[in-house]
Amino acid sequence: MEDLARRVAAYLAHRMPQASNIEVSRVSRIHGGASRETFRLHASWEEGGAKVERPLILRRDPVASLIETERDLEYNAYRAFHPTGLPVPEPLYLETDLSWLDRPFFVMEQIEGCQAGSAFNAEPYGEFAEKIGQQFWTHLGHIAAADPHGIGFAENMEPVAPDECWKRELEKWEKVIDEDELEPQPVARAAIRWLKRNPPSPAEKISVVHGDYRTGNFLFDAEGNIRAILDWEMCHLGDPLEDVAWAADPLWAHERPERPGGMIARDEAIRLWEEASGLKADPVRLRWWEIFNSLKGLAIWISAGKEYQTGANRDPVLAFSSWYCTDVHNRVLARRLAELSEEGRA
Amino acid sequence: MKPDVGTVMQGFFGTLLGDVAPHLNAEYSMGNVGIMGMMMFMTAEEYDRAADIRAAENAEMRSLFSHAAALVTDDALKKKLAAAASEKEGSLRVTALNARNAALAALLIELQTHVEASDASWASALEARIWDHLVAATERRKLPLPSFG
Q: In chain A, how many domains are there?
């Protein structure tokens, strides 16, 4: 960590020529960032005769990751949403020059005095479940309501037509399974066939899709206020119902779909989202995105298993994801698809 | 072999979380120890049941293929189904069971795809039987997650 502190200090000196006596201390790696190496650190420097102290977060690309994404996607999402009032950390520097820290990285504000709920805890928010749930679904509605062009999000994003969102996302994650499966996946393959046979209606609008909006990916403070929505590395333009379905996936709620993410009742969650977004959660289209998201989850966990099995990345969280999350999503999808198959035959 | 593997794994899980993790200073290391402990807890269950659930799954698929071979009219698929149905389970090592399970699962995908596209009178019932198998198989493989209160 000492070497990393020294190198980050050199980088900050490069980015802040007006600063002097830059020191970086208290560097510690945060657990769970399987798609990025995430470090908490403390920077101090002198500027204009005053001492400045700033806690920061460093997100560096790993050698191999759970999710293969470009770090500028995530950085640009923070840059687009930070001025809107949505609780996200302030992004500071994005760096692709490998000479600084060997791999691309970005630096952002550290939100202190907060915690993230665990998706693997049956009651991740305890007494704050109601309060946090209301904010969680309202913030997601605000993300859906945002104008991707107006906030500068769409600038470097691949555009997509309302009737093409589903196809692009399905093709993307089917390709991941094609490339990364180490054994045949009957449930995933059945899901892909069902999704292709039953395409959804076009998106009501093209919105910013966070891509991983769920329990565990936001910070809340001791009063139960959501202070930072994190982990935007899978963000894209698409159907906002994609995020609703992912947030409501049974994996994040100990398989209790009636209380998504261990927060508030599903009906109330959807109502709050509709109110904040000004959109309708069409139940048939939402069902398509729910099945899609359980498949997307399977693709991510299958990919994580390959990374671990081949030795590309031996982070234990990859092995855990591949065992436990694959198991949950296979069960969720099998039950759901069996019901739909029966309905189709009736 | 005593103590039982399950007992040892569960014991190690308790030691890692109760004795090792609290003495670690690095947040990242503590997180890794927690994950490894949870996987030991899961391994305790998986060690005991692994051969049993794979053998049961393989037997179910062979039975399903035997039934399907009498129904499907596609000659190539019919032959593959009949051949797979007549295979006997060999070694009970988990790696051997996994290899046969993978071959059978690949054939199951082919059969299910064929059945979904078929309008034959038997297709609907066979599709339902395939789903009964997949629901039961995924349920059998359910991994335990320790409760942290």
A: 2
